[in-house]
């Protein structure tokens, strides 16, 4: 039974069909373009919903700090993914929009010393877990990617420490925390069907 296509895949397919009428593409090129467009559409829709919800709350800066730090770390640490773009979007709204608001309402914060200790701890964790690949094709250059993940952690930790506000340090830390958690093998448990494959 053929899998039903997602909204993003349908849009990507329509765009590819229009492109292929003007440019001659082989099957492999069509597949690559279609995959790239689908990924782009998913990310655009996801970010629109996350930042749209943040705009409704009137605290888009909270979301931006946490999300940007997460994206920087995710770029180098990799890690598991949600089983669907819908799940990913819902988790993103909860974590990057609702959680910062909850922290703000409860006047929570984090000192520079606490951020430093956490950053060092995360460095040790990432040394053993990063980069946490989710596909075999990403295993090329494993050691270099590990070094980049550790450097990203050090850079982000120092960056978070530079915030004058304890609260902003905390929401920056939340983005760092999530990226590290998603590299842990134990995170596979709630996501049966997702397997983290490591380079040997």
Whole-number tally of structural domains: 2
Mean pLDDT: 82
Q: What is the succession of H and E elements?
A: HHHHHHH
Shape: globular
- The portion of residues assigned to helices is over 70%
Low-confidence stretches: 189-200
Total E-strand runs: 0
Backbone structural class: mainly alpha
Beta content comes to under 5%
**Secondary structure tally, helices:** 7
C-alpha end-to-end distance: 36 Å
Gyration radius, in Å: 19 Å
Main beta sheet, described? none
Protein name: Accessory gene regulator B family protein
Keywords: Cell membrane, Hydrolase, Membrane, Protease, Quorum sensing, Transmembrane, Transmembrane helix
Organism: Carnobacterium divergens
Pfam families: AgrB
Gist of the model:
This protein has 200 residues and is mainly alpha-helical. It is 70% helix and 0% strand.
Keywords:
single chain, 200 residues, mainly alpha, 2 domains, 7 helices, disordered C terminus, cell membrane, membrane, AgrB, transmembrane helix
